[in-house]
Design brief:
The chain contains eleven helices and three strands, in the order H-H-H-H-H-H-E-E-E-H-H-H-H-H. The protein is mostly helical and 293 residues long. Helix 7 runs parallel beside helix 10. The chain is rod-shaped and about 110 Å long.
């Protein structure tokens, strides 16, 4: 039950991270587009007007109050302003393009086989099966076959009740932890898509500042860095799942090497906890890569 629930969360993460805002809810996306064009875009136009007037004033004052008028600089300013207007009016579509780029990157990551296989569950149960054992001189239990021991009176059945009870308790605790981890997985995946939707909606304002040479230029640059970080976050989340598959394979190898079911349960919980912790930190890691503040 524990592994099945976690596998369901992993599969949900693989599908939820790859969806675009349009796939998430097309009606909501159209509403956000309308909000962006009717509420945010006018503010962006005011910002463009402010930047244009400010740079005209700086141009006049720098050129001896207009006595040394530079036509080339004015033409360049008009070209920059035209580009700013074009970026602002198409900002919603441009920002959605980052989401499409993220989906393309995510689709390149092979995630079809990422799950806790049933082999691990069977290996854990096999370690708990009753077996015939005998005791050595120090009282240590050692497996024994009936045909291998001359004195059959020294043999007895070891039902492993203690180990089975402890494994059951850890499994119960693990089921609760798995529920929490599953919630964290959905929290991270949906928080990311919600952040993308917010960034897309507000896009005209930062896009309107990209071509400016004043202090407002940093607004647009930081916006693009954060939007790129959200793009990379989805990719990093899928890479984490590939790493998780390696952890599962390593756990399976330890079980087959005779480490025991109890240790296997603990290792599975540890691997789940590591992945959940790293998933929560993917946004910060992506921001550090892009240099976003």
């Amino acid at each position: 039950k524990m592994t099945g629930m976690f596998n369901s969360s992993i599969n949900a993460l693989s599908s939820e991270v790859a969806i675009t805002p349009a796939q998430f809810d097309i009606n909501m996306l159209n509403t956000l587009r309308n909000i962006s064009e009717t509420v945010v875009l006018p503010i962006a136009v005011l910002l463009i007007t402010y930047v244009f007037v400010l740079q005209i004033i700086e141009h006049v004052t720098d050129k001896n109050k207009g006595s040394e008028w530079d036509v080339g600089s004015v033409v360049m300013l008009i070209i920059k302003t035209t580009i700013m207007i074009s970026l602002a009016t198409n900002a919603f579509t441009i920002a959605l393009g980052f989401s499409d780029l993220s989906t393309w990157m995510i689709n390149q990551v092979p995630t079809e086989s990422i799950e806790i296989t049933s082999d691990i569950t069977e290996d854990i149960l096999d370690t708990l099966k009753p077996e015939i054992v005998t005791e050595d001189e120090n009282g240590k239990k050692i497996p024994a076959g009936v045909d291998e021991i001359e004195d059959e009176e020294t043999q007895f059945w070891d039902y492993k009740l203690g180990e089975g009870f402890v494994t059951m308790m850890i499994g119960f605790i693990g089921l609760i932890i798995t529920m929490i981890i599953g919630g964290i997985i959905y929290l991270v995946a949906w928080s990311r898509i919600i952040m993308i939707l917010l960034y897309v909606t507000i896009a005209p304002i930062p896009m309107a500042t990209l071509m400016s040479e004043t202090w407002v230029n940093s607004i647009g640059q930081n916006y693009l860095k954060n939007l790129l970080a959200l793009t990379l976050q989805g990719f990093l989340m899928l890479v984490l799942l590939v790493i998780y598959q390696g952890l599962v394979t390593r756990t399976s190898a330890l079980i087959q090497a005779g480490e025991g079911g109890l240790k296997a349960m603990i290792l599975i919980l540890v691997s789940m906890g590591i992945i959940a912790k790293m998933l929560v930190g993917t946004h910060s890691f992506a921001k550090s890569i892009t240099g976003a503040s």
